[in-house]
């Protein structure tokens, strides 16, 4: 007898989508000047962040996107984006709220992506990869659409590292036969805590300064030195 296919509870998936929509709208509402977006632009960014993780997860797993098979995903992302726009003025003064929302979103999408990949029979390493891509997918789509440097490819506050740590914890616990719900809670908690602490204490991975300095030193050494004629 085959085990039933793992299904992410609709309410849990909608919570992740809703939080992502709010966080995306808050992010997009904060721009001023030439980068300022109108209501439609902010709503689209919110929807992308809310639904992007699930879309990327299902595409990597070769599945038809779950978010396009139920009206509630798009409705939830849209309403959440509107809420984010209406409360942007309040939340912009509470930067900690945005940080916590961001951490929760990447934690939830990472947990759902890893869990679904494991349930479909993927080995642990590819399953973690799917989880990380799902976790950061909404943020990547947001940055690409807005023409910004992709956050996870630049010096930041352990964005993808936090997601990866949570996905690893979930996958290892599931390997040890811990119930998937408990493993998912542990994974989300680890991602959220690491992300919040990294932002609070400004922790990031080392920059590629040494490689850059070495490159400059090599190029400088290759430049011929013209000494003034002393005669």
Explain the layout of strands and helices.
Elements: H1 10-29, H2 39-60, H3 71-86, H4 88-92, H5 95-119, H6 124-145, H7 159-175, H8 180-200, H9 209-221
Helix pairs in contact: 1-2, 1-3, 1-5, 2-3, 2-5, 2-6, 5-6, 5-7, 5-8, 6-7, 7-8
Structure description:
There is one protein chain. By secondary structure, this protein is mainly α. The chain has one domain. 70% of the residues lie in helices and 0% in strands. The protein has nine helices and no strands. The protein starts with 9 loop residues before the first helix and ends in a 10-residue tail after the last helix.
Supply the key terms.
disordered N terminus, 231 residues, 0% strand, mainly alpha
Short overview:
Helix content is 70%, strand content 0%. By secondary structure, it is mostly helical. The model is unreliable at 1-5 (pLDDT under 50).
- Secondary structure category: mainly alpha
| Terminus-to-terminus distance | 96 Å
The tally of strands reads 0
Largest sheet: none
